[in-house]
Amino acid sequence: MIRTADQSEDPGADEGRPADSPLHRVGGRVADALALQPDDIAAIAPARRLPSWRSTLRVAELAYDSAALSSLAMALVGSDRGVSTPGMRSIRVDASRVQASFGSERLFRIDGSAPRFRAPLSDFWRVSDGWVRTHGNYPHHVERLTALLGLPARAGRAAVGAAMRDRGRFELEDRAARAGALIIAVRDPSEWRSHPQFSVLERSPAVHLESRGNAAPRRWREAGGLPLTGIRVLDLTRVIAGPVATRDLATAGADVLRIDSPRLPEVAWQHLDTGQAKRSTLLDLDRSADLDRVRQLLESADVVVHGYRPSALSKYGLDFEALHRRFPGIVVAQLSAWGTEGPWGRRRGFDSLVQAASGVAVLESTDGGTTPGALPVQALDHSAGHFLAASIATALLRQRREGGSFGIRVSLARIANELLAAGPAPHAADAAASVDQELALPTTSVPVVTASGGATSRVECAPPILAFDGAPTEYRSPLHRWGADPPVWSTTG
């Protein structure tokens, strides 16, 4: 038995939502997909102010709505558990905190030093018929990219640029996909709308939430001062969107254990920038002992969040079908770049690549489209993370009320489609030529602890942005270094 939220035949329709809704276009579409009621949405106070970014598109509205919906979903869980009350107009998201969090890499400092967060081979490149965008933030991405171009792994920018200059953008894109490298052709919006992957995405809701099976409702574990106290989350995600989602869950009280393969090291500062209130352990799913340990953790897990491609977890018995049969009542949430179906359903991708493929990069150009540009922050990643957290909290609440196991899917490209459909930002032409009206951006200081519990460093970072009743304004626990924790839950029961 599968139950999915109803969706309009017209993906762009906004019928049924009050004209005075505090949400904007994209947030409203996500709220519809989650079947949130107007009375619930009314708990969000209209924005007094939005983040002050220069952008052709409505990126400030997107960011604000994603934080507001995550806050609302946590508030609704808290109300159900008697730990918070989402009273009318009680959720007021702070625009300065949203702006700080979405651009967190610019504020991040560890022991006073800023990280190096731009990789030399992650950039736009001129080719024979336009532009391509590459991604080379991780060593294995660099190796695949340079090998595809017939270059040594340590090749510099000049050599990479020369190797691509006389080739076509779609030729490079197709060859990269076959080789597991990351090169995407820069398209304008009309080219993206004619792509078969666009059509596949437009037939799906803004976020996908389905209930499957007849599992009995689970009981909430011990009550606490936060909405998700007692909820156990296995986090199998990397980079930004997934870790942002699980940070929201942890901020709302969940026990989040991130699991990474020891064979794919994470960028140390990047982990710390999204690792607040969570723990981190290393397990190799190709080792039987480690896979057994994951299965033991699943025995009492409430949520699994992952960013793997559709079939990657099937061989381990960790896909949604297997998990909901073995662990009835579980919530399984999947992030992807391009969606999980269609011709690009198995392709890798990142925020910057989705911007390039979808036409966002062309619209954000500062010279009329001659040179591609980018959103002022990685807003697809961050907003997708907050929408995912909202979806997970909504699924947990429905599971406790109705039963069933829940599957959730969120893709960066689907969020990009909604952002494009929302149209240009108000006065976009004037904004593109002006200097941002800067908000004073807040930061917070968090200690970094070792496995033995001793603090070794301090991180300055963006503070929490959730705004449910009783939401922490500072992170409630120290940061844990990547892979520093044992593979156990921190809570009992």
Strand neighbour order, sheet with most strands = 1-6-12-11-10-7-8-9
Which regions have little confidence, pLDDT < 50, spanning 5+ residues?
A: 1-17, 428-436
Overall residue-averaged pLDDT value: 91
Global Rg:
22 Å
β-strand amount: 5-15%
* Tally of separate helices: 19
* CATH fold topology of the domain at 27-114 and 201-340 and 376-480: Rossmann fold
Largest sheet: 8 strands, mixed
| CATH level 1 class label of the domain at 27-114 and 201-340 and 376-480 | Alpha Beta
Q: Count all strands and give the number.
A: 15
CATH superfamily grouping of the domain at 27-114 and 201-340 and 376-480: Crotonobetainyl-coa:carnitine coa-transferase, domain 1
CATH architecture of the domain at 27-114 and 201-340 and 376-480: 3-Layer(aba) Sandwich
List the topology elements:
Blueprint (H helix, E strand, L loop, with lengths): L1 E3 L20 H9 L4 H4 L17 H23 L13 H8 L1 H4 L1 E2 L13 E4 L2 E5 L4 H10 L8 H9 L3 H11 L3 E3 L3 H5 L2 H7 L5 E5 L19 E5 L4 H11 L3 E6 L7 H7 L4 E4 L5 H11 L4 E4 L13 H7 L4 E6 L14 H8 L1 H4 L15 H24 L2 E7 H10 L6 H5 L11 E6 L5 E7 L17 E2 L13
Parallel strand pairs: 7-8, 7-10, 8-9, 10-11, 11-12, 13-15
Antiparallel strand pairs: 1-6, 2-14, 3-4, 4-5, 6-12, 13-14
Helix pairs in contact: 1-3, 3-4, 3-17, 11-17, 15-18, 17-18
